[in-house]
Design goal:
Elements lengths: L6 H11 L5 H8 L4 H10 L12 H16 L11 H17 L18 H6 L9 H17 L2 H22 L3 H24 L4 H7 L8 H10 L1 H8 L5 H9 L1 H17 L9 H26 L3 H11 L2
Helix pairs in contact: 1-15, 2-16, 4-15, 5-7, 5-8, 7-8, 8-9, 9-11, 9-12, 9-14, 11-12, 13-14, 14-15, 15-16
């Protein structure tokens, strides 16, 4: 498919970009007196339907975003790229709920390329053929069988987390769209760095670390393993020589700062497609910007419900919103 086939799609995306909430509005939202006042502000700009139920605000926005993309993108297969992390998260959720007997529906992340309504049933019946790829089938089967044997949910989570990164690596290796390819590379490397630091802090051995990491893109897996085994300072020194040095140093200060840095870097990469006329990259950029908006509004509404002080909320929100 040629990039010019995205002409209508990109035009529609550009039109919707004008409706994204501005940083000025987000600041005003964070300064709202209470939850009800914040909701009223969102109603006035059409972000919330005045008839919507409280629990539906965020989910409706997420579904509207996915409907827009599904209706506009000419190559539907590329939308699966945007669902990879959610898909593997949902598999982890389904496994937990199958074993606990809980209803998984309220825990699923959207969008997802999986048929969420039948996900628990597929896992419970060991019907792995319903999954789209051989790698996903294998990872789900291994994760479920492992947790059934060991009764340690962490083992299953690690298997599926690595599988998710390997799926992004595969996209990175074959994706012709620069922006999404760079996002995949960054997510893979930054996730492996986070895992390596945790392993070093908890003095995990080389075998465990090797199993917990996927291959990397712009750093070396074997170096992450060897330096993690040598200890936190050795790993810190190695990461200081990488292009992720600034973020890694933030993790050693406060892991939450690292998470914020990662989110902002993904947005920076995504918005780098601002002058791209056609293709999937502008779609990708809008997807990440809109998701950041949804996440920020959710944070503000939850904070208003919980009575978090406005000054503290504003500081957190304005760092996160771009």
């Amino acid at each position: 498919m040629k990039d010019t086939d995205y002409a209508f799609c990109v035009a529609r995306i550009r039109a919707n970009e004008s409706n994204l909430l501005s940083a000025e509005f987000i600041k005003k939202l964070a300064e709202a007196e209470n939850y009800e006042a914040a909701v009223n502000l969102l109603v006035t700009v059409g972000w919330i339907d005045s008839d919507a139920k409280d629990d539906d605000y965020i989910r409706v926005q997420s579904r509207n975003l996915w409907t827009l993309l599904s209706e506009s993108v000419p190559d539907k297969k590329v939308l699966d790229y945007l669902c990879v992390l959610n898909d593997y998260f949902n598999i982890k959720t389904a496994i937990k709920c199958v074993l606990s007997g809980e209803n998984a529906d309220k825990y699923y992340a959207e969008p997802s390329s999986l048929v969420l309504g039948s996900l628990c049933g597929s896992i419970d019946s060991r019907d792995y053929d319903t999954f789209k790829s051989e790698s996903m089938r294998a990872a789900t089967k291994t994760a479920f069988e492992t947790v059934c044997i060991t009764n340690r949910g962490q083992d299953a989570e690690m298997i599926l987390d690595v599988a998710a990164l390997e799926a992004l690596l595969e996209i990175y290796s074959k994706c012709k769209y620069r922006v999404f390819s760079e996002i995949c590379a960054f997510i893979v490397d930054s996730s492996n760095i986070r895992t390596a630091i945790r392993c070093a802090c908890n003095k995990k051995d080389a075998e465990f670390i090797a199993a917990a990491l996927s291959d990397c893109c712009k750093i070396k897996k074997d170096k992450l393993i060897s330096e993690s085994v040598d200890g936190v300072e050795a790993l810190r020194e190695y990461l200081s020589t990488s292009e992720y040095s600034k973020g890694a140093e933030l993790y050693f200060t406060n892991s939450a700062l690292y998470d914020n840095w990662c989110e902002k870097k993904v947005l920076e990469i995504a918005t780098g497609s601002g002058f791209t006329a056609f293709g999937f990259d502008p779609v990708c950029a809008y997807f990440y910007r809109k998701n950041n908006e949804i996440k920020t509004v959710k944070l503000i509404l939850n904070a208003k419900k919980s009575g978090i002080p406005t000054d503290l909320l504003k500081e957190r929100v304005m760092v996160a919103y771009a």
